[in-house]
Design brief:
Layout: H1 8-17, E1 20-25, H2 31-38, E2 43-46, H3 50-58, H4 60-66, E3 71-74, H5 82-92, E4 99-104, H6 107-116, E5 121-125, H7 131-135, H8 140-149, H9 153-157, H10 163-182, H11 188-199, H12 208-215, H13 219-231, E6 235-238, E7 254-257, H14 260-266, H15 272-277, H16 281-298, E8 306-310, E9 316-324, E10 327-333, H17 345-354, E11 359-365, E12 372-373, E13 380-383, H18 391-395
Parallel strand pairs: 1-4, 1-5, 2-3, 3-4, 10-11, 11-13
Antiparallel strand pairs: 6-7, 8-9, 9-10, 12-13
Helix pairs in contact: 3-4, 5-6, 8-14, 11-12, 12-13
Length: 396
């Protein structure tokens, strides 16, 4: 079963304008399937095959003669030096749509793209499936299923697959193949413990020293491992917004997981009912909502212009989306269906600090089935995550 990806038109537009398009994203996010589906007439090679990778490394000119463009090169991170050769080929012929590169984003790939293909390529990030791609009008029950199962395409294309077995196998493959290739990690068991300890801190201010202490590693090691999780799109850090307003603000980022299914798997829940009864439910929901906002922007070909806001006194807004100079959309995340006035304290405080025009509009994303106003003229509303009048429609 093919699931239409929202980023498809953005990729087509990029291929029509740039000689090289790079599609990055987490392993198994669907990069290869998507570009082959969108460009069926393009030749396809993968550097996942050692012989193919070696032939490109030894004589790229001969490699291109055997594989004329338009050409899809998969897993390009395994031979990052070919990016220099692509620069030379593109400088001789700048026709758009010549090369489509895919890869699980890592240091070597993006360093090579930055150094060799600046101004010659478009770089797009493919997230795992969003809720809108699986079921745009999802009921609360279906929304919960998505949060539990996660957004990896194969889990929805093949519903018979066992979630725990698939995610466990994915985690083992990720640890063995990607992490060991990127860093010289002596103990994969330590890294697995690090992942699970990170999951316990989702939605919290990230303290590398505390995380390192709990796992039994050095703080610099924890910093390096968080960077690996970021560049391979397993986690993302939400940075705090602060300006020269004179009020002391928190300057530490918050940690979130890119896929909600992987998060609940790492937290060790046996079933969905265990999630919503647990003290971590609020953090899981916040991760789910903010992850969907990030996917919304990635699917438009944009970097998410997202922040959080928190003072040292504890006033907080879960998510700020920058829409202009010192102007934001604000989102709070609540697990209840009916929102209390206390949920608006952070919104009132940020307006008090920066002025009434700081917030263009605001929403509390909660478990309601339909939107309802929380302030006059619907400037602040309670929203469902999916369906008519839901979060994606509100963002658009």
């Amino acid at each position: 079963m093919w699931i239409k990806r929202l980023i498809s038109d953005v990729i087509r537009k990029a291929v029509a304008q740039f000689p090289v398009v790079v599609v990055t994203g987490a392993r198994q996010a669907g990069k290869t399937s998507l570009v082959r589906h969108l460009f069926p007439d393009a030749q396809y090679v993968t550097f996942d095959i050692p012989q193919t990778a070696e032939s490109a490394r030894l004589d790229f000119g001969a490699f291109l003669r055997r594989h004329p463009d338009p050409l899809i090169i998969d897993e390009v991170q395994y031979v990052p030096e070919v990016l220099r050769h692509l620069k030379s080929a593109v400088d001789k012929d700048r026709r758009p749509g010549r090369f489509i590169l895919t890869g699980s984003q890592d240091f070597m790939l993006m360093e090579g793209v930055t150094e060799s293909l600046a101004g010659r390529c478009a770089v797009l990030s493919l997230p795992t499936l969003s809720l809108a791609e699986v079921d745009a009008g999802a009921t609360t029950e279906k929304m919960d299923l998505f949060c539990w199962r996660g957004g990896f395409p194969e889990l929805w294309q093949r519903p018979e697959l066992d979630r725990e077995m698939w995610l466990g196998s994915y985690l083992s493959t990720y640890l063995e193949r990607d992490v060991r290739n990127i860093l010289n990690i002596g103990s994969l068991r330590d890294f697995d413990r690090f992942l699970r300890a990170a999951a316990l801190r989702v939605g919290q201010l990230l303290s590398l020293s505390e995380l390192a202490r709990d796992v039994g590693i050095a703080p610099n090691t924890a910093k390096s491992w968080i960077s690996i999780l970021e560049t391979s799109r397993q986690v993302f850090l939400l940075q705090p917004y602060h300006s020269s307003a004179g009020k002391r603000l928190i300057k530490t980022p918050k940690l979130y997981f890119s896929d909600p299914g992987m998060l609940t798997y790492l937290l060790g829940f046996a079933d969905w009912e265990s999630v919503i009864r647990n003290a971590a439910w609020g953090a899981v929901w916040e991760n789910f909502v903010i992850g969907e906002v990030h996917k919304h922007f990635f699917n438009m070909g944009k970097r998410p212009p997202c922040w959080f806001w928190r003072t040292v006194q504890g006033e907080e807004v879960d998510l700020l989306i920058e829409v202009g100079p010192r102007q934001f959309l604000a989102i709070e995340c609540k697990t209840s269906a009916r929102v209390e006035s206390s949920a608006l304290k952070g919104l009132a405080e940020i307006e008090r600090c920066y002025g009434a025009k700081t917030l263009k509009k605001a929403a509390v994303v909660c478990r309601t089935e339909s939107p309802y106003p929380l302030a006059p003229k619907s400037r602040i509303v309670a929203l469902p995550l999916a369906g008519d009048g839901g979060l994606v429609e509100w963002l658009s």
